[in-house]
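User: Study the shape:
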Amino acid sequence: MSDANGGRIGSSKFFGGQNYNKLRKDCEKKKALFVDTVFPPSNYSLFLEEGRHTDIEWKRPAEIADDPHLFVEGASPNDVTQGILGNCWFVSACSALTHNQKLLEKVIPLPDDQEWSGKRRYCGIFRFCFWRFGRWIEIVIDDLLPTRDGKLLFARSKTNNEFWSALLEKAFAKLYGCYENLVGGRLSDALQDVSGGVAETINTRKYMEKDAASASTTLFDHVKTSFDNGALIVAAIAARTKEEIEMSLDCGLVKGHAYAVTAVRFIELSKQKESIGAKIGAFFTGHHDREMLIRLQNPWGEKEWNGPWSDGSKEWELVSEAHKRELGITVDEDGEFWMPWNSFVEQFTDISLCQLFNTSHFSVSKRFHEDIHYGEWTTNGSKSGAPNDLAGGCLNFTATCCSNPQFLLEVTTPQNEMYFSLTQKEINEGLKRREPHISIGMHLMRVERNRKFRVHQPMEGAATSDYSNSRSVCLTVRDLAPGRYILMPTTFAPREQTTFLLRGYGDFHFKLTPLTKHAPRSGILSCNSSPPSVTRLQIRKAEYHRRPNDSLDNGLKFYCIIKSEKEKCQTSVQGGSMTPEWNDLFLFHRKDRRQQYFIELWHERFGPDVLIARAELVALMDNECKEVDLPLVPPKSKSTSESVGTISIQMCAYDDPYYI
């Protein structure tokens, strides 16, 4: 369960055991300013190695500026300016955060209560919240900030007496162990830390390779919809070498640098300035020319795009003055600029996007259902590939890849949208020395329509995420065919062990059901043993010959029902011809070596469905796969000589229930 901002509902964790309310009351009682002993104002909090000699002085805001405030006239993207620290990934995330007021209030709780001019006594203590591994962590800091010559060294606001960004950066440095650890982080990590959302990184080059004709527009629609729904978005131009980091390009952009996305818009062009052809087209269609634009913020507060649609460019002459005022167009060198979407996807290589899903029952906007699970990759002290081994690695390791946690998913609607987020736990949270992340990913495979137990061999793949040694990876799927699937979160290599958080979001009701059993038990007296065999049937297709007295309507929709012992299963409904194709799979665990199955062909129609033919299959447990064409006979016929068609089936029967 989650709140509207994507975080898991539950009590906040107090980082380092520090409770803001208790510490503040203690300061008020002693009439003293708070000094943090966990993250002290010293080299310990600045560097990985404490022995450095520096001329850095730690000062409180009142020693830096007159009339200090947490916020001055609210928060906006260009409030935040990067200092000498190479942490544009975090500063850009802060700029993006100002786009979502509710989220900002989650990260900086009760800001009025923390203001210098608030009702409560100023005690030099502040609190911030960051999302980690499914819950929000409260971090307490003092307001002693690193300065040189009386000026802030690191993140700051353009307004001299506004300090929310500098204090937020200090809390973030405390979470990461020291300020030095903020140099060169991942955009997606920072976005997730301040939102609790589902972070994904889109490689624009790979995305544009899908379908060059439509990919650009499709990506624009995805980014615009996400932004309009409150997503935090940051973009970057990858640097291929160390020398290219922060290299300025002729177009005004900077390589190896992160930019916050502050708007994604269609810009309407002025009717008076359209071409004659465009005006004629608009007369018939009702639509005037418009341009896909994106607005970005450079955390340096300078160095802007100088191409089409940049500040003061001739393209803005195509936009009415009223529309310019609505968009807040300025020609200031403030680091914020517009650029055309097509130029954006040509220049920028990566888009880090943190989705926030509305899971509220009481909302007019699109609602997503959510399911959350904590799990673990562990060998359980067993050999690789053993039944209780849950660290089998990715699909590259075919012998062990199914030895991973598995989650069963039932898709019930053909038009669907799903997002899966896999997050590994930070091993050394808050410590200076940080362990590298394990490479992780997810694989989604389609399985038998009646599967209830773990899969032991990879099946038809539906989707696979990228594998990355990042904290989180995301898998997005759309329009999955109805049926059953298994989602496997995996490490890339076998026998790597850690805990994980798996979150699923879908626009239909669903559940991710953990699969722990390998097969059903064979009986009460042998409770630890499994049935001696497993059979997989694939109902492929049927060929039905219409009879004179058939009551088939024009819909021609068919499905099959498979009966065996007390079990009954149904295929999907297919139609349009007298030769329907299903290719649906079913799994049966049986004790007997000789198994009998009855297959019924039904006609779906308005009113009661009609049984029109049947077939009988006898399967032997011979550890082979066979293709058979069975005769279809009328429901009441006792002889196969009255055949009205055939049904094609593949059957595979094995004496090892762990084989498939």
